């Protein structure tokens, strides 16, 4: 996996200590976060969160700073199951009371996932890639909830796209004057892929779909399963996406009936 370097912007030092300790604030915001945390081409944010949490708990630091880094770890893709394993491991080496204190904070941070009853947490445990954040930027082009986890922006763009049951994107076309298109690599669950004028194809883990530029298509989850695929952007000249009409419930439900 290739991690694109991402600049981390932090202002907590200046916000809280700027007048009292300006140099410390500068080192915190510009060096620790602006330089060290931003070296994501060397070590990804997810791994940096694991290292930082381990260091803080081992040092017995279970105050607001640990809460902040637990929240950051969740944003960086660490799941409830993973943080439980991390803190259990740390407990054996750093001390049981420290792990207990950390668990009290982690339980609150991951409270929403703990109350999850729709299978999201269970599905996330099925695959090696994180589900990521709600795909809000493209929500208007989807029916249902999808999630997006950027994996690489160097050489080729790769994203893990996750669909809740019944979620699907609109018909769309990847345009390019030369090259372009997209490759889907299915990693978990079951889904649908359909090109305009052709029968829909059911997708399972391990399936690969090659989508040339100019082909009208859609893809998404089946009604009874979460679904995730890697979306690989094929380099091309003049590349763009054209979003079209939604896949109606009538069209979608017909596929579900045929599946039975």
UniProtKB/TrEMBL annotation:
Residues 22-108 form the Carboxymuconolactone decarboxylase-like domain. This is Carboxymuconolactone decarboxylase family protein. It comes from the Bacteria. GO terms for molecular function: peroxiredoxin activity.
